[in-house]
Amino acid sequence: xxxxxxxxxxxxxxxxxxxxxxxxxxxxxxxxxxxxxxxxxxxxxxxxxxxxxxxxxxxxxxxxxxxxxxxxxxxxxxxxxxxxxxxxxxxxxxxxxxxxxxxxxxxxxxxxxxxxxxxxxxxxxxxxxxxxxxxxxxxxxxxxxxxxxxxxxxxxxxxxxxxxxxxxxxxxxxxxxxxxxxxxxxxxxxxxxxxxxxxxxxxxxxxxxxxxxxxxxxxxxxxxxxxxxxxxxxxxxxxxxxxxxxxxxxxxx
Length: 253
Description:
single chain, alpha/beta, 6-stranded mixed β-sheet, 4-stranded mixed β-sheet, 11 helices, globular
């Protein structure tokens, strides 16, 4: 499948984000992840979600996003939220094998999983939305809040800090850090252990744990949607994003 590589290994489905250097979440990747989540919802057994190369995912494709008008941006936001919600509510064990940088929307994707095992290395994970002037849509806010230690949530959301793997583990964002060469094996071991649990019990318990979060998302989604669109279309915010993109291009030269 374009944007993703999907493999079956001893009853475990491994989904690899494979879309250029940074595995950004553009419209094509979002469609592929949505289609894949729909297919996985009808199956059984654990799922491992990982990335190819140095990135798990750098988040939304900002180059694509800054070119959108309000209608197109709203449709894209709706599709991204629906995709992330499908992964968050997937009635199967989901393990994020975080192989590299997981920034903004990339961190949110990792946080949709039930567990996060990460490779030790020179990479970062964190939420940079507020530092760019972008408020969190309801789904991203609530799904992340579900996973992060409440005592650390304000700093994680508001400071725009990027955490090294060991720092992220201490903050409760990651569950465990392992040697890079052991990442796939350790994620597979956890998946194999979870596979021994009857699927119905896991799915029902997971759904019950997430139900209050999903209810809060539903009640706030429409209002938060408009705030997100207003911010992304604000000339000051767009200028800030474009400045960030230009700075990134300069570093690559």
